[in-house]
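Reminder: ligand-aware prediction takes two inputs, not one.
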Amino acid sequence: MSIDTATGNEAPAELSSKRVKDIFSHIANRYEKFNAISSFGAYKLWVAGMMKQAPISNNDDVLDIAGGTGEITFAVAKTKHPAHIQCTDLVPEMLEVAKAHYAAGAAGSVPVHFEVVDAQDIPYENNSYDTVTVAYGIRNMPQREQALSEMYRVLKPGGSLVCLEFSTPPNKVWRGLYHFYLNHLIPFWGGLITKDKKGFVYLSSSIKAFPDQEGLAKLMEQAGFVDVTWKNYTGGIAAVHVAKKPEAIN
Ligand SMILES: C[S@@+](CC[C@H](N)C(=O)[O-])C[C@H]1O[C@@H](n2cnc3c(N)ncnc32)[C@H](O)[C@@H]1O
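Here is what comes back for the chain with S-adenosylmethionine:
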């Protein structure tokens, strides 16, 4: 099944894929500023939370999906020192920014390779990575079930998926305030500062159309993952899910 990621309604995958390519190729050079503005700087805290929860050790081969400008790749490199990271994204312009950060030493001594990859059709072998990371990626994918199945396929048995995504605050009052912020403030002041209102309008609507914590956990379980847990950040505005591919059965 494929959906329009701005509404959650069924729609041809090309609609969302084209929009996401337009938005991210256009904002690639301003993406990091865009991120800081839309989260009031909380993004860094959420990434730190993601790193705390990520079960990555220094022999691991890590696949970063929807890696964008490399924020998660470089956080993994600095905090976990894995053997290798494959940083991938659908949009070449985003990866160009990541490559420039890498050339400037953002990964320290950890080797990183970059490749344009659609998460819904990953060109890697079965059982090849110890950990898959994805931050703010799944929400932008029109074929989420397929993307999660692909992440599951390329993980080694016993490997983990670590996913940071916007989510739904469980507290009614906090959720109401947050939705007011999404509906009215983000498109206005984000647009004013970056002159790119379209990206902020899409951000708001895609967040509202995205499944809540439990809904995302169910999608992961349907793809075959087990032991799915999550931790909320900033009262559930963001959540980090960790899911496991079962160990091989002998
Ligand atoms: C909001 S950015 C997140 C980037 C990075 N993970 C971060 O935390 O800063 C979303 C990224 O998802 C990428 N993306 C969207 N759809 C994708 C797909 N089907 N496959 C791979 N990447 C995709 C976009 O190109 C964009 O770089």
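DSSP finds nine helices and seven strands in the chain. The longest helix spans residues 172-194. We will return to this case in the review session.
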